[in-house]
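Render this sequence as a predicted structure.
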Amino acid sequence: MGLPKNSAAATRRAKLDAVRRAQAVRDRRNKIITMVVCAAIFAAIAGGTTYLLFTIKGEEKKKEAAKTAPVSGEKTWDKLTQNHVAQPVTYPMTPATGGDHAQAWMNCNGDVYAKEVRQENAVHALEHGAVWITYSDKAAPEDVKKLTDRVKQTPYTLMSPHSKQTSPITLSAWGKQVDVDSASDPRVNAFLTKYVQGPQTPEPGAACTNGLTA
């Protein structure tokens, strides 16, 4: 004997309500899961962004510190005169890093000279922001070759032998100088990075071409 119509309808409604309640529970659970996942993703992104910003700021601080910190073993001369003179100059350092100098500068657009150049002309190139790399007969041929290749690819540099220096290799900028034993010394790159058109330059942007070539 079947159930009364009212009883059957009530059973169907009860089942439907149960399905709806179950669906509502699932929906709430899914929403909670979605919110938790989104919160986790947001936290990860925020944390990653914060870390990235701190990393960038840290790298910027390191770069700024590198710009102001002297190169290890660097020698410095202050208050160097800048007069143009015709006569030879006796410099207080060898090679010369600054002071009175000749009217004409040595070309310093990645120029490599096989013979010694006049210091008075080289100093004028330093005034323009160049770095002058010199070497003695103590320098290894492979180091001379490596530095030659580097200079030829670097504007505002010049290179030449220098018989009176005591170090195998010397890097000079206006008022700055460092001696190294080999081209692989990390101070070579540090000195070039810091002082090619660096903050020590009395006349930044001045020409390194249209000067003397020998």
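Summary. The chain has four helices and six strands. The chain has two domains: 1-69, 75-195.
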